[in-house]
Amino acid sequence: MEAGGAGEVDHLAGERATAQFDVDHMKVAWAGSRHAVDVADRMARLVASDPVFRKDNRTMLPRKELFKDTLRKAAHAWKRIVELRLTEEEANLLRLYVDQPGYVDLHWGMFVPAIKGQGTEEQQKKWLPLAYKFQIIGCYAQTELGHGSNVQGLETTATFDPKTDEFVMHSPTLTSSKWWPGGLGKASTHAVVYARLITEGKDYGIHGFIVQLRSLEDHSPLPGVTLGDIGGKFGSGAYNSMDNGVLRFDHVRIPRDQMLMRLSQVTKEGKYVHSNVPKQLLYGTMVFVRQTIVADASKALSRATCIAVRYSAMRKQFGPQTGGPETQVLNYKTQQSRLFPLLASAYAFRFVGEWLKWLYTDVTHKLEAKDFSTLQEAHACTAGLKAVTTSATADGIEECRKLCGGHGYLNSSGLPELFATYVPACTYEGDNVVLLLQVARILMKTVSQLASGKQPVGTMAYMGNVQYLMQCKCGVNTAEDWLSPAAIREVFEARALRMAVNCAQNINRAPSQEEGLYELSPDLLEVAVAHIQLIIVTKFIEKVEQDIPGEGVKEQLRNLCNVYALYLVHKHLGDFLSTGCMTARQGALANQQLGKLYAQLRPNAVALVDAFNYTDHYLGSVLGRYDGNVYPALYDEAWKDPLNDSPVPDGYREHLRPLLKQQLKLSRL
Ligand SMILES: CCCCC/C=C/C(=O)SCCNC(=O)CCNC(=O)[C@H](O)C(C)(C)COP(=O)(O)OP(=O)(O)OC[C@H]1O[C@@H](n2cnc3c(N)ncnc32)[C@H](O)[C@@H]1OP(=O)(O)O
Ligand SMILES: Cc1cc2nc3c(=O)[nH]c(=O)nc-3n(C[C@H](O)[C@H](O)[C@H](O)COP(=O)(O)OP(=O)(O)OC[C@H]3O[C@@H](n4cnc5c(N)ncnc54)[C@H](O)[C@@H]3O)c2cc1C
């Protein structure tokens, strides 16, 4: 728990005293409202004080025990949710702070949303109450052994049999085996299965079906269903608590009304009827989850930076040549230039995630009113932001590990497990490269429509300003000029647009559009990244322009926003220079300003991570302890390793003793 209890010493008190802003108000800015801070605080403490939710031994558990521990925690969490009559908001937070990937994530995160989004009202009435009360457990079974990214390439079939009014679910090949779905391996009783719908001899492509997989009596697989876990995954603990599974069907029959029929239907005569809606609505659950993944990126990166900032503030190495106390590693400029952009990114991702949630809700309302005009914008923003934020977060967590030196490599630092748990986010819910190429294709289409005078809208509206942005010159003359939001915004817009136009021109020179898109795909990725970074920077600027209460809070957020933007300028200087958006001198001035911003951020660093309001339990790191009392904790933690159960290790008699005796004999010869 946080410091402040009787007898505790706050080793970071000096750091906290230098903060130039009101931390309590920053907590509100981070969480979104006072209410959000209070609920999160209550739920985090509830979890931290409950021994069942202990997780410090997790990386030492064998897989079977880890999985059982996950089942136990999930059941206990549900018991507490029911006993305490928690609201949906409270229950979600409680699960977040339990912090152990498990089948419940897919049950609530994908199974329920898939039924809500693709089921008819009648189907929702039938299935949702069962799911809400955990009378059934569901997962999302889309990916197969042979195809994940290419959803249209899935092979599982659902063939309609009008004689019995049933679909026959079948896995015709090895590669059609469902492979990866979380919760499928051991826990789920049901799944939303994506399969090719075949009726009247015609293949109508991929559709969703609710399929029961296991008996509700004894949990055994139903006849014709083969089920199992796909095996151990990267890292200790980490995502190994999840039963990612394999599933095969051997002509399994399900009633016709278990096809999710909101978007299209099959009549009992076997006639296929498609409602007058875009077929991409089938991908709605993925769009929903991608949006939540952006919010999760800020959580993961803020955890890692919290650990690295606190540890860097207490850790000392070397000192002045003249003697005197050693230097806190956080005072090294190199440490700051590696760490502070990550801290700024955590804040940037938090605010863009908040905006994306708003966009998603807005699009959902429009879809309900049969307005599909913003579907493309929702797809581009969720796909692109998911890709950029998860890649930056995974890289950022690994950088935080290195920033903690040798101790960062210990499991007790929390960073190896955080990385191993987080890194698949770059792959699941859409491989990041595949998703960025989707964004780039939309950008190319938008560029090609500019000539016809079609005005782009939403986050692509800036592209309509093509005449100006293609020739504008950056007006920065001094390092301070880089503190202007207008200057920052303009160079990011010009960079994104010029890269997109250049790429579109190169594609047009190719023998065909398809060949051009193929040949230039590495450039297309960079075009998409530039566009998405513009969105993140813009949303951060807009956030800072809002009314933000609390002494010094707005100033700190403005600093962080500038750090984020100028760090990107520095990192991608090649883009800005090659597109003529700025001169080399202006690039150097941006870097000069960045150095000044780091110096301003330094006295506030610890308080800025305190504002995340994470308990020591949630952080799960001896290095990131609130009180900064790291060394005794590291020392104590080492003795908990099973290898230290006895002073003489298992295996000594068989493998060490004979060796040592033999060497002794040889030396006597
Ligand atoms: C709780 C968290 C735990 C998470 C656990 C993990 C779960 C999972 O991983 S579930 C499985 C997730 N799988 C994926 O994400 C697969 C990724 N692949 C796809 O999303 C798609 O197959 C694709 C988008 C890469 C390609 O789809 P395809 O049907 O081949 O479409 P085209 O590229 O030909 O595009 C046609 C058209 O449709 C537009 N579009 C594509 N996706 C969407 C969408 N989601 N929403 C709206 N519109 C979409 C695309 O822009 C094209 O538009 P036009 O050019 O105007 O035709
Ligand atoms: C931890 C985890 C949990 C998961 N949970 C679920 C789940 O609950 N339900 C579910 O259905 N699925 C789940 N998945 C599957 C996941 O959605 C897929 O793995 C993901 O969509 C990527 O697809 P793939 O594995 O087919 O990769 P591939 O597409 O085979 O990717 C391999 C390589 O090919 C590249 N590539 C592919 N296509 C292109 C292209 N068009 N252009 C350029 N490069 C390309 C990729 O960038 C990548 O480098 C999970 C996966 C993981 C790792």
From TrEMBL:
Subcellular location: Peroxisome
Active site: E429
Cofactor(s) for this UniProt protein: FAD
Keyword terms, alphabetized: FAD, Fatty acid metabolism, Flavoprotein, Lipid metabolism, Oxidoreductase, Peroxisome
Residues engaged in binding FAD: T143, G182
Entry GO MF terms: acyl-CoA oxidase activity; FAD binding; fatty acid binding
Domain Acyl-CoA oxidase C-alpha1: 283-444
InterPro entries membership: ACOX_C_alpha1, Acyl-CoA_ox_N, Acyl-CoA_Oxase/DH_mid-dom_sf, Acyl-CoA_oxidase, Acyl-CoA_oxidase_C, AcylCo_DH-like_C, AcylCoA_DH/ox_N_sf, AcylCoA_DH/oxidase_NM_dom_sf
Gene Ontology, cellular component aspect: peroxisome
Any Pfam family hit: ACOX
Residues of the Acyl-CoA oxidase C-terminal domain: 485-661
Main location, first listed in the record: other
Keyword hit for Transcription: no
Domain called Acyl-coenzyme A oxidase N-terminal: residue spans: 22-137
Record keyword Oxidoreductase present: yes
Biological process (GO), any one: fatty acid beta-oxidation using acyl-CoA oxidase
Family, per entry: Belongs to the acyl-CoA oxidase family.
Protein name: Acyl-coenzyme A oxidase
Gene name, Swiss-Prot/TrEMBL: LOC102718841
